[in-house]
Structures are given as C-alpha cells and as structure tokens.
Amino acid sequence: MPEAVLALEGLHKRFGALAATDDVSLTLRPGEIHALIGPNGAGKSTLIAQIAGSLRPDAGRVLLGGVDVTGESVAARARRGLGRSFQVSSLAEPLPAIRNVMIAVQALAGHSFRFWKPVARDPRLVEPAMAALERMGLGHRAATPVAELSHGERRALEVACALALRPRVLLLDEPMAGLGPEGSAHLTELLERLKAEVPILLIEHDMEAVFRLAERISVLVAGRIIAHGDGDTIRRDPQVRDAYLGD
Ligand code: ADP
Ligand code: MG
C-alpha cells in the first residue's frame, strides 16, 4: 500500500452548537481518486477549507506528504503542492485561456518574473501553460478569450490553472456542477486520465461520474463519515441508500 499523499486525522470543526466536521479521517493515495459524497450541509466544503488552510480545525491534523501542515497558511500549503480548482469568478474574462494559466504559472515562479517585460511570449510561461491546457483538452482554445468559452471549457480551464502550479494533490469541489450529461462525461474522461499524475480528492454529486472515477468513496452525513469503501460497497450500503442515494 503506497504511503498517503494526503491524510486527515480526526478533524473536528464546530460552528457554535453545530459540529460541521465531527472526527473526520481519510487518506488519499498516489494514483487514486477518492470521492467524498453526501447531502447538502454535510460538511464537505468545510472539510475542503480545513485541508486548504482557510479554516482551522478545532482538533485533528492535516498531513501532506507525511508533513503536519495543520498550522500552515493557505499559501504555504499551496507551495507544498496542495492544488485546488479556482472558482469561476477568478478567471479573467477578457483574457485568452492561455493567459489565465500563465498567471498561475507566474504565481508559482514568484518574484523571478516581476521584472520580465513583456511576459506574454516568454517560453518559461507559455510552455508550461500550454502543457496544462493540453492536459485538459483545451490546447485548441488557447487563444480564445474566457468570455467565449463554454461552461464546461471554463471548468476544465480552472483545473488547468490548478495543474499549472504542479500540485501533488488536487482538491475539486463539485467540478461537474451545472455541466449537463455531455459536459460531465467529457470532464470525467479528462479526470480519469489525470489521476495517474495527480491524486484527486473529489467532491461530486454526479454519481455516475463518482462511480466511474473513484477507487474509494467516503460518505459524509452531518459532519461524520458514515461509510467508506469501493463503489460496490457504497452502492450496497443500506445506511448510504437511506441517507443519500435513495432508491
Ligand atoms: P456541504 O459543502 O457539504 O454542503 P458545508 O461544509 O458548506 O456543507 O456546511 C456544513 C454545515 O456548516 C452547514 O450546516 C452550514 O450551514 C454550516 N456552516 C458552514 N460554514 C459556516 C460558517 N462559516 N459559520 C457557521 N456555519 C457554517
Ligand atoms: Mg459544499
């Protein structure tokens, strides 16, 4: 069993009387997609925020590559290779797709690019940005302004921006939201290819995508993981059918 790239140990987070995450532990191993599913309000986004570092747990630890990062900032965790998809709103609408990815590459390179003018043609930015676009099936859309991209292409572009930062782990919070069956199927294919390179913790309501992609599934309900296992185990679990999947 390969060592976990990401490990959560007993994460607790309360908002007043509400236990938003209640003793949550899980791991993410190289080469896998681990899906986290559960009803609205279960605590999935609260968990992601504790992993990314924007929210401090009341108790428990977050380990990245075996290192305890629980006390570290969002930026420090990102530098250690914790990647997450950007929100749609963070894409620069008038700029071509590739410029959006180049901004991410530039952020990774830090200060070394500050005095480079013009950066638009700098191969040190263009090449890794193009590579990230191609991995998300957007090579042919590099020059297209974000405003002209479809909803599905924007979701793929957000993942490309995260990939350009060369993450060791990718956190995706509902990447299929609003995509429709065709868009979901396309993004599913892209993620399937991606997982060999970077393991993904995937929060997703699209169960077809989850069952196709995830090696393991954890079910979060009211802040607690009520079931964990492969797709067949989760599909058959009566508690999960009751709390989430329905019949
Ligand atoms: P999910 O992503 O699974 O839909 P969330 O993590 O967004 O669930 O929310 C889990 C619970 O915590 C919900 O009941 C939500 O109302 C509550 N919650 C989330 N963030 C806060 C906050 N900053 N303050 C108070 N309550 C919060
Ligand atoms: Mg959420």
UniProtKB/TrEMBL annotation:
Domain of life: Bacteria
A GO term from the CC aspect: plasma membrane
Transmembrane annotation, as ranges: none
SUPFAM superfamilies: P-loop containing nucleoside triphosphate hydrolases
Keyword Transport among UniProt keywords: yes
Keyword field: ATP-binding, Nucleotide-binding, Transport
Keyword Nucleotide-binding in annotation: yes
InterPro entries noted in UniProt: AAA+_ATPase, ABC_AA/LPS_Transport, ABC_transporter-like_ATP-bd, ABC_transporter-like_CS, BCA_ABC_TP_C, P-loop_NTPase
One term of GO molecular function: ATP hydrolysis activity
Domain ABC transporter: 6-247
Name the record gives this protein: Branched-chain amino acid transport system ATP-binding protein
Native organism: Halomonas shengliensis
